[in-house]
Amino acid sequence: MESPKALGLGSSLMSVQELAKEPMLVIPQPYIRSEEEEPSIPSHGSHSLQTIPVIDMNRLVFGQTDLELVNLHFACKEWGFFQLVNHGVESSVVEKLRNEIQGFYKLPLEEKMRYKRKEGDVEGYGQTILMHENQTVDWADRFYMITNPVYRRKDHLLPELPSSLRESLESYISVLQKLAMTLLGLIAKALKIEEKEIEEMFDDGMQAVRLTYYPPCPQPEKVMGLTAHSDATGITILLQVNGVQGFQVKRDGIWIPVNVLPDAFVVNVGDVLEIFSNGLYKSIEHRATVNSEKERISIAMFFNPKFQSEMSIGKQWKEFLDYNDSIGFIFHDDAKRLDRGAKNRYNV
Ligand SMILES: O=C(O)CCC(=O)C(=O)O
C-alpha cells in the first residue's frame, strides 16, 4: 500500500474531511477520476424520469401481500434495488443514530483516529483501501466494522465508541437484523422457495456496518465519493442519513440518481443472493457522487451468510445450471470479495 507521503497527501490520507477544510484551488491528484469515470448525472431525457421501485413493507406483511410480493420480485429481478417504506423501524431509533453519527464526524480528528484502520486490516476509520498503485482515492472517510457474530467484533472499535453512539448503533443493528431476516423471508416467498432455506443460511450470519462521510468538494465532477461496485452480500440496507442526494444505481449503462425518500431504506440485492437465485435477482453496480455545498452521510448494513458456510445456487435451480454447480464457494472470513470479477472467473 502506498504511504501517505508517497501519495503527496501528508496526514490527510487519513481524512478527506480534514483535507476539504483547507482552501483548495485544485483537487489533489490522487482524488482525480479519469475522464470516463466522471459522474454523468442525467438531468434530462427519459432516464431522468426513472426511479428505483418503492416497496411497502406494511402491505407486504399485512395488506395486499400477493400483489406486493410481485412488486418485490420485479424490483429484485429488474433493478436489484428498491426503497423500503413503512418498514416498521421506529423513527426514534433512526433519529438517535442520525444525530450520533453526525456528532461522531464532528469530533476532532484525534478522537476519530482512536479507531483508525490498522495496516493490513479492513476494519476501522479511514479512507479508500489502496490495493494498487495509481488507484484513485474516493472523496470520503469511512468507518467499517464487522458487527456479527459478536465474538468477531474488534475490541478497539464498536466496544470503545462513545457510549451514546455505541448504544444507538446497537439498537439500530438489532432492529435492522430483524428487518433483514423478515425481508429475506419475504424474498424467499417471492422466489417461491422454502423460507427455511434462506433463513438457515443468513441466521446469525456475518454482518457489517459502514458509516461514510462525504465532505463537500469544490470540484465535485472531478472526484467520486464511492467508486462503482456491487456488494458481495446477501442484501444491503442503506440509510441516507442526512437527506442529501448522491447515491446512484446503474441501469442500462446509465447512472440513475436515487431520490432521498423520508423514512425510507434503500435495499439492494448482493452477489450472494444473485448467485443463490441462479442469476434471477441482480446484484447491480452503484456509486456515490458528492456535491460542492453539502456534506453527505450514509450508513450501510451488510447481511451475509454465516462465516465459512458453503454457498451455491439454491436447490431448486441446480438442475438448470445457468449458474453451474461449480460456483459453490465458501463465504470466507478474511473479507475477500466475491465480486463480479470473481464470478466471471467462475465463468458464469
Ligand atoms: O453512501 C452511500 O450512499 C452508498 C454506500 C455504499 O454503497 C456502501 O457503503 O457500500
TrEMBL record:
InterPro entries given in the database record: DIOX_N, IPNS-like_FE2OG_OXY, IPNS-like_sf, Oxoglu/Fe-dep_dioxygenase_dom, Plant_2OG-oxidoreductases
GO molecular-function terms, A-Z: metal ion binding; oxidoreductase activity, acting on paired donors, with incorporation or reduction of molecular oxygen
Domain of life the protein comes from: Eukaryota
Keyword entries, A-Z: Iron, Metal-binding, Oxidoreductase
Domain Fe2OG dioxygenase as annotated: residue spans: 205-305
Similarity comment: family membership: Belongs to the iron/ascorbate-dependent oxidoreductase family.
Protein's recorded name: Fe2OG dioxygenase domain-containing protein
